[in-house]
Design goal:
Number of domains of chain A: 2
Strand order of the largest sheet of chain A: 5-6-7-4-8-9
Radius of gyration of chain A: 24 Å
CATH topology of the largest domain in chain A: Rossmann fold
Distance between the termini of chain A: 20 Å
Structural class of chain A: alpha/beta
Helix content of chain B: over 70%
Number of helices of chain A: 11
Strand order of the largest sheet of chain B: 1-2
Order of helices and strands of chain B: HHEEHHHHHHHHHH
Shape of chain A: elongated
Oligomer: heterodimer
CATH class of the largest domain in chain A: Alpha Beta
Number of helices of chain B: 12
Largest sheet of chain B: 2 strands, antiparallel
Chain lengths: 309, 265
């Protein structure tokens, strides 16, 4: 396994001869089913693990070889685990971090100002970290990962267990760092909301190999299932319509939606929308018809289910 | 991170830890005085013994008190700064929390230790140790002049603390292979209690175990026989043993870290 990150391009050559590049300043979602190799890659990139073969560069540094130098330019959140001092308050933890990273006062105060505005960090005040609720603790964790203006942040499940308000705040926080400082973001999350509201790039891994890299729109376009929804003004009942469509288009599957329309799902590699629409127009008095964009959720579910190569 | 920065961070962490002692006052009192209770039992046993016989193998009551007190000094000094190592052996590696020491631009061992410098129990141990040593030496004559006793004695205490630290670190590092080594650490820690009594009363096998295998004898028995009876042969080795122990422990620690980073366990 090897990966390569550089100042302009952060490249990961991960498992099985596959490599990918993440440009500095990009916000990349790292997607894969459980066990696809996400955590391993993040551990390699943060210097927690050493690869058995090959190499990887983050900001021009091999993190496991020159861990301390690499760590200076990185922020890390592992949503399931705390990295703060459990029996100290958030304020104390931040003061320690200021010394660990040698953060100039101006930067420290500016960032605290942002955390006050977005995360209401003062509310956490003098309470020891161990006594914070999950949502409070996660606010402190994400803030801590950005406190030293890192060039890259690795966020592994940063919004796990958070309510919608806090999720939004966390997303706004990292987007702001990216917009103002050009912070590179590598994110893994099972919450698609995180991905769509933070990331512009996706990197899909499966069984240790990168199977897709590009924009989110590009990923959605690869959806193997498309659908068409329609209503018609003919005398047939919905069930009869479904049966007819099934007979007419054997490769597609028809069903009735909750709002009393007929939905046709068809494999993109065997039917085109043109063929589907032509058949429908020929047979029915169409009163309403639309073809929704495939959902990111569906595409990712397919990947997780192993339906894609 | 430069040495100056590292020292500044360490200093700051000492401050944070002292502050924590105030925050967690109950913890502090419990730790410091819990130790006194433990010592009370020990002292009662020794007192009961010397109520029956005036001397045991050339040691009288004051000698034994001196030894008991001196034993607490290196142990207390070590405990003061390095007891966070216990966490590694017990939870951090097994629970997967250890990674957090690796994501900072600071030496991981310093990260581990600085997480909690200045332990409350250590205060009780150090104060009681100093009190016992002072009281005992007012009742007996030392074999070395007072100036030498204090100067060399302090050096021996520091060496002894390093030996305690090394043994703890080495055993805790085993957790990198076994995921936890708490029970091993605890057993060996209990072994250190034997070093608080005259070793010449023990079976030679136990004596050599405490000298050459787990060198707790260099943290108390050899320094004390030098201070009380002027025996110099083995005490001269103390700095060498301390250096060797620390070197061995750091080596095992580094190998363990490398293993952790290779497997990500």
């Amino acid at each position: 396994m090897s990966s390569l990150f550089s100042r302009e391009y952060e490249t990961v050559r991960a498992v099985d001869d596959v490599s990918f590049e993440v440009p500095a300043g990009a916000k990349t979602a790292y997607i894969g089913a459980n066990g696809a190799g996400k955590s391993t890659t993040i551990k390699l990139l943060t210097g927690i693990m050493t690869p058995t073969g090959g190499s990887c560069l983050v900001n021009g540094v091999e993190p496991y070889r020159d861990r301390r130098r690499a760590a200076q330019a990185m922020g890390v959140v592992f949503g399931q685990r705390t990295q703060l001092w459990w029996d100290l308050s958030v304020t104390d933890s931040f003061r320690i971090l200021q010394r660990i990273y040698d953060i100039p006062d101006a930067v420290y105060q500016r960032n605290l100002g942002i955390y006050r505005e977005l995360l209401d960090i003062d509310e956490l005040g003098g309470t020891p970290v161990r006594m914070l609720s999950l949502g409070q603790r996660m606010r402190a964790e994400v803030a801590a990962s950005l406190l030293h203006d890192p060039k890259v942040v690795f966020w592994d499940e940063p919004t796990i267990g958070l309510d919608l308000m806090v999720k939004d705040a966390v997303r706004a926080l990292v987007n702001r760092a990216n917009a103002e400082l050009g912070t590179t973001v590598v994110l893994t999350s099972h919450d698609l909301g995180d991905i769509t509201s933070i990331c512009d790039q996706v990197l899909v891994v499966d069984k240790g190999r990168v199977i897709h890299q590009g924009t989110i729109a590009g990923l959605v376009a690869t959806a193997s299932q498309r659908s068409v929804l329609f209503s018609h003004s003919g005398p047939e009942t919905l069930d009869e319509t479904v049966r007819e469509v099934d007979a007419m288009l054997p490769k597609a599957t028809a069903s009735v939606t909750d709002d009393h329309r007929v939905r046709i799902d068809y494999p993109a590699d065997q039917l085109t929308s043109r063929e589907v629409l032509a058949s429908l127009l020929e047979r029915f008095e169409i009163s309403d018809c639309y073809a929704p964009e495939p959902e990111l959720k569906t595409v990712i579910q397919e990947i997780y289910a192993g339906g894609r190569v | 991170m430069s040495i100056v920065q590292t020292l500044r961070l360490t200093w700051y962490m000492c401050g944070v830890s002292l502050h924590r002692l105030v925050e967690y006052r109950g913890d502090f009192i419990l730790g410091a005085f819990g130790f006194l209770v433990m010592f009370g039992v020990q002292a009662a046993l020794v007192g009961a013994l010397f109520a029956l016989v005036p001397t045991v193998g050339g040691w009288d009551f004051a000698h034994v008190l001196f030894l008991l007190g001196f034993t607490m000094l290196p142990r207390g000094l070590d405990k003061m700064f390095t007891d966070n190592i216990w966490l590694i052996s017990a939870f951090e590696i097994r629970g997967g929390e250890f990674y957090r020491y690796l994501i900072r631009p600071v030496n991981p061992l310093l990260m581990v230790l600085s997480e909690r410098l200045v332990w409350p129990d250590a205060f009780g141990e150090l104060i009681l140790g100093v009190a016992l040593v002072s009281y005992a030496s007012s009742r007996i004559d030392l074999a070395v002049p007072a100036g030498e006793a204090i100067g060399v004695g302090l050096l021996l205490v520091v060496c002894g603390a390093l030996i305690h630290f090394a043994i703890k670190l080495l055993l805790a590092s085993l957790a990198f292979w076994t995921t936890q080594s708490f029970s091993a650490m605890r057993s060996v820690n209990e072994l250190s209690m034997f070093a608080g009594y005259p070793l010449d009363l023990y079976h030679p096998a136990l004596r050599s175990l405490l000298t050459w295998m787990v060198p707790f004898a260099f943290t108390s028995y050899y320094p004390v026989t030098y201070l009380l009876f002027g025996q110099r042969d083995l005490v001269l080795l103390t700095p060498v043993v301390a250096a060797a122990a620390v070197l061995a422990a750091l080596t095992v620690w580094r190998l363990g870290l490398r293993r952790y980073q290779a497997t990500g366990s």
